[in-house]
Amino acid sequence: MRGLIYKEVQLFFRSIDKKLILLAAGIIVLLLVKAGVYSGLLATVMLAMTISMQNVMSFASDEKADWKKYQLALPVSNICVVASKYISVLCTLIISSLGGILFCIISGTIYSSFNITLFGLSVLSAIIVPLVWTGICLPLTYWFGFHSAQTMGLIVVIPIFFLIKYFEDGPGLSALPVSLNSYIIIACITALVTFALSFIISILGYVRKR
């Protein structure tokens, strides 16, 4: 099992799309410079989106190598194979969270302002966005292939885009306490339930492959 997890983590880093990283880095820098006190939060969301996309894109390497046929020759179960992927996603949350903390520190330094609410929301976003994104896209990958998940990933961007617009054009910081009190628990439960159900559905999809 540890070997499978190591394989998935290594695959995540080795299959990094340089164009995606450069695009994300450019947007993050732009957000840190232009988004004011919300720059740390929005940069964190962008990083979380990038990590989520990369987790899904790493499947391309498995499909090219026809990993399923190779796995059948190994003494590992289908459940272990899928579980290793999901555990590797949880491992990448460390990168997302650390990035969120760093962006909040940078934002606070640039604008001489540190808001604990925005900091907490940034760290939470660094965890929830990848869980929901991969929770939706991984089952699609196991059932219908990598390209289906790619298409769905583009659709997932839409609500995140509206989140960014909310902070740019909406009530913003003044409405955060109310928003957090109303939605933070629901968001956490939704992310965890989505990820758990996703794991079960992915197992069923992977088992049916030959």
Top keywords for this entry?
210 residues
Question: What is this structure, in a nutshell?
Answer:
This protein is mainly alpha-helical and 210 residues long. The chain is built from nine helices and no strands.
Structural overview:
There is one protein chain. The protein starts with a helix and ends with a helix. The longest helix is centred in the middle third of the chain and has 34 residues, at 78-111. The mean pLDDT is 78. The chain has helices at residues 2-14, 18-34, 39-57, 59-65, 67-71, 78-111, 116-144, 146-169, 176-207. It is built from nine helices and no strands. It has 210 residues and is an all-alpha fold.
Task: Please write out the topology.
Blueprint: H1 2-14, H2 18-34, H3 39-57, H4 59-65, H5 67-71, H6 78-111, H7 116-144, H8 146-169, H9 176-207
End-to-end Cα distance:
21 Å
* Strands, total number: 0
**Whole-number mean pLDDT:** 78
* Structural class estimated from helices and strands: mainly alpha
Radius of gyration: 18 Å
Which geometry do the CA atoms define?
elongated
Q: Give the ordered list of helices and strands.
A: HHHHHHHHH
Most strands sheet: none
Uncertain regions: pLDDT < 50 for 5+ in a row? Answer: none
* Tally of individual helices: 9
> What share of residues is helical?
over 70%
Strand percentage: under 5%
